[in-house]
Write a structure and sequence with these properties.
Helices cover 34% and strands 11% of the residues. The protein has 317 residues and is an alpha/beta fold. The longest helix is centred in the middle third of the chain and has 16 residues, at 185-200.
Amino acid sequence: MHFIETLRKHGAYPLKAQSVETLQVNVGYRCNMSCKHCHVQAGPLREETMALETMKAVLGTLKAAGIRTLDITGGAPECNPHLRFFIEKAKEIGCQVMVRSNLTIFLEDGMNDLPRFYKDHEVELVASLPYYLEEAVDRVRGERTFEKSISALRTLNDLGFGVERGGLKLDLVHNPQGMFFPPPQSTMEEEYRRELERRYGVFFNKLFTLTNMPIGRFRHFLTEKNQLERYMERLRNSFNAATLDAIMCRHLINVGWDGTLYDCDFNQMVNLPLLENYPRTVQDFDRFVLFHREIACDDHCFGCTAGQGSSCKGAAA
């Protein structure tokens, strides 16, 4: 059964946005890493990068539409040369700014001062750390990735991120290894908190658990192993209607590096833009039309609605 048919079966079609609380902006696909589970297929050789003029259009939309949460993603957002300008201007208009970081970027040449910049501008960090054990992380993200991530986390803790005295938010993201669904988010958060403190003296605020989406590099992996249909069947059989209120597309709009609008970052990666008759670019943004729009869906959406669900802030149910 396809996703749209499943929505119909549960009386949830068409799926519509409930609001737009967040503008999620992908500032480019370039990254210093090439992780095996990356739905963006990001890497050092990707050339797609948001131009300064497009960023200015995004800032205009934030201000005009009254959207006060800016969620910046990539690739590694820090690879965009205009990121600091983007953050500074967003803060000036009163936005809460989140950056989704891979942590290892802070150890690259010219990036060492970014943690201090984030502190000075009270940026909220959402950092990818697939697991709390070195071997598991390096297997997915590359040799010495875990070591670099722990070093970056210690630097952030010293600056006040993720610790009670600092007041700066540092959330972590867990992805399961392979074809598995993540454990209950509360259970995994407790495990991460205990083990990261005990083993490495590292602290954080919240843990978000994300299901591996059947797109990008993970889809290629499934296809190579002849496991794509098996994984899709698991997702379909685990559909949970209780996740529908909290999945990301109901509460945000995603902006691609070239200014194209999407219902979520996953739709961007499969080139599924907003449905026809809606504004298609950030330059044409219309809050009255888009805030309660019908959402474009396809079968990859089972990844957000399986089990406890998967959204920008982790479990959806």
